[in-house]
Amino acid sequence: xxxxxxxxxxxxxxxxxxxxxSCSQTLNHNVMYWYQQKSSQAPKLLFHYYxxxxxxxxxxxxxxxxxxxxxxFCFLDIRSPGLGDAAMYLCATxxxxxxxxxxxxxxxxxxxx
Amino acid sequence: xxxxxxxxxxxxxxEGRISILNCDYTNSMFDYFLWYKKYxxxxxxxxxxxSSIKDKxxxxxxTVFLNKSAKHLSLHxxxxxxxxxxxxxxxxxxxxxxxxxxxxxLIWGLGTSLAVNP
Lengths: 113, 118
What we know:
Shape of chain B: globular
Number of helices of chain A: 0
Number of helices of chain B: 0
Structural class of chain B: mainly beta
Order of helices and strands of chain A: EEEEEEEEEEE
Strand content of chain A: over 45%
Radius of gyration of chain B: 14 Å
Strand content of chain B: over 45%
Largest sheet of chain A: 7 strands, mixed
Oligomer: heterodimer
Largest sheet of chain B: 6 strands, mixed
């Protein structure tokens, strides 16, 4: 089945220790998104790639970086995680067409100790 | 400024009855609306959508109604089932550029937690 896969599902890191979350997709979609979601809040868009074009949200901290080496994979790098970065990180894909229906992965729950 | 608002944080409904989840928006430029369902510890799952040129879209037990003049949409679930218990997010989008393959962002509401009681 075509899908969006996120690894790991649960990640524990230490304060200030870099961490990388990964996302892969078999949908062959043009667009890949990274969202941060904290409890009882809406998903917050961090950035997205349209093919190789990177689009950063204005309020995304510099601590968050992303890489998309090919169509299938996208990575979220948190250079120096703080306690406030503990959250669910969601990867999503879309075809980038007008409807913009986005398909989400299961998410990675990040804990910062 | 919350452009997409779901004013009811939670809703409780009896199994077999209708669930009505509401969503209001402020930006008249939105031209596409989506509903997502989210279970705990999972990513959101697309449920149903509607274009601004329509006022109703139906898919099985799920119907979305759009009232453009009131900038209001609602999701109806009939009949409600215990498995429908989840958080429901309303999202809206509009094109950001006029180029082909333009990028679109989803603007999300805060969600409504639906509990369907057996």
